[in-house]
Amino acid sequence: MASLFAYDFIVRALVAGSLVSLCAALLGVTLVLKRYSMIGDGLSHVGFGTLAIAMALNLSPLLVSLPVSILAAFFLLRLSSSEKGLKGDSAIALISSSALAIGILVSSAVSGLNTDVTAYLFGSILALGKNDVIISVILSIVVLLLFILCYRNIFMVTFDPNFATSAGIKSANYDRLIALLTALTVVIGMRLMGAMMISSLIIFPALTSMRVCKSFFAVTLLSAALSVICFFAGIAFSFFFSLPAGASIVVVNLVAFLIAALIGKIRG
Predict the structure, then answer these.
(1) Closest Cα to residue 261, out of 207, 200, 214, 221?
(2) HEC states along 54-95?
(3) pTM of the model
């Protein structure tokens, strides 16, 4: 295992990825319970579309993608809770696939699908630089602090928004906060996991923890721990067997889910 830490790019990936995994897991519990998990997948596709267009036009990918993804998060949240027109999940699937396709077409037409673009699509630990790690650390700390400070209200809004509203809590504002934090997490995680797989960091730890835990607090804690452990195991698996990092992390999360599902079934 010592050889794993002998490479700078691995250390950078572990630092940035562990923080992103932790943020994604904490937010994932609320998103899954509120049936907003499709938002993570939608944001990853929208984020990639804007990143690809920004790179094709020689603009800063993060400076363009962050504000657009935040606006998209609010829009997708509204679609998820809307009962008019297209159903929320159908509208999100339509928007996300369209954004992904437009990003690929624009990038292909202007500069071609170069290494930088495909790194955002499928993820690459080799593409992580020092600036990426610094940005990931700063944004992850912001996400973690806001989640911890607003934990009690997020808990109330997640389980009983009507009671939260009667208690003077503006549920819509906390829904927007969750959407904002999810957008930040998705954008900073795409460099490592790729747009195609970043949503797995949001969904898998929460679903796995719900197989064996019953309380919101226990599920949140276990999700956070499992996400970091599975990320580390996925990176190690990828390093020792020369496999793609993003796919390896997803497979490790899948194995953890299947084990937890088996344990939950045995325990009844």
Answers:
(1) 207
(2) HHHCCCCHHHHHHHHHHHHHHHHHHHHHCCCCCCHHHHHHHH
(3) 0.84
Task: Copy the structure tokens of residue 121.
Answer: 């699509």
Q: Which two tokens stand for residue 187?
A: 């954008």
How far is it between the farthest Cα atoms of the chain? 56
- 130, exposed or middle or buried, with CB in 10 Å at 0-12, 13-18, 19+? exposed
Mention every residue, 6+ apart, whose C-beta is less than 8 A from residue 222: 205, 208, 209, 212, 213
CB 154 within 8 A of CB 178: yes
Which two three-digit tokens encode residue 126? Answer: 């080799």
pLDDT category, 85, cuts 50, 70, 90? very low
Judged by average pLDDT, the poorest of 15-29, 124-138, 208-222 is 124-138
Place of tokens 């020369």: 242
